[in-house]
Amino acid sequence: MMSRATRIIALALMLLVAGCASTNPKDPFENFNRAMFEFNDAVDQAAVKPAAEVYRTVLPSFVQTGIYNFFGNLGDVSTALNNLLQGKLADGMSDVMRVAVNTTFGLGGLLDIGSEAGLVKHKEDFGQTLGYWGISSGPYVVLPILGSSTLRDVGALPVDWETDPWRYMSPVHTRNTGSVLRILDLRASVLDASNLIEEAALDRYQFVRDAYMQRRESKVNDGELSKSVYEEEESTATSGTGTPAKPVTSGQGSQQTPSSEPAQQGQNDTAVSSVASVEKQ
Q1: Confidence of residue 278 (pLDDT cuts 50, 70, 90)
Q2: Could you tell me if 89 and 46 are in contact, meaning their C-beta atoms sit under 8 angstroms apart?
Q3: Predicted confidence (pLDDT) per residue in 51-76, tens digit
Q4: How far apart are CA 20 and CA 9, in angstroms?
């Protein structure tokens, strides 16, 4: 019997193959992606975002912190595994220690004792592991409900889900209740950033797509972001030539360059797609 992960991936791939592609070379599935982006945004605006606003308003901050720490501790299990698979033994063992310390001395992960002890928190998933070993990301894909991804990361999703300890929680009603809390906490944590992108971006789909691809590349390369095809095309379009656009000088004499934008775009991308990518968190 097909698992939920397999069904979702199979559905997305069938829709992609069914003629939803565009002629855009850097986004061959743009027509499909835009339709899914609008669908996911409608679900978020109608249900998830209002619920997250209530969650942030009603629950005391220390309760929200505890929920965030608890699920973050579970996520460290998958992070440890992926760091070890990437050959980052020091980071992997540090992650193992974080889980051990936070689970035992942090009341099951409600308290982040590991950070106070100097154990740095990392975030790795199986898509990053595949990228680390040289597998290309492939085209950008927006999955129903799950949100921004790439063909490589779509293939990695089943592994991410299978290595999530919460998946094996029982009874089922406890697992479902916790999953809802997990979604609401993640969405509530990026409410301000998502409001910013809703107000600032003229084409939110393009803004999110480019930011997501840059952010994923940065994660795969541990923060070392090379110039992607998205940035190259944007530079060409801005300057009107084959050379990068010149910096814009403000009235005070300071300079603002296009290269100062990816970090903020990555944060805004997280805001928009956070609830859709909660399975990875």
Answers
A1: very low
A2: no
A3: 999 999 999 999 999 999 999 999 99
A4: 16
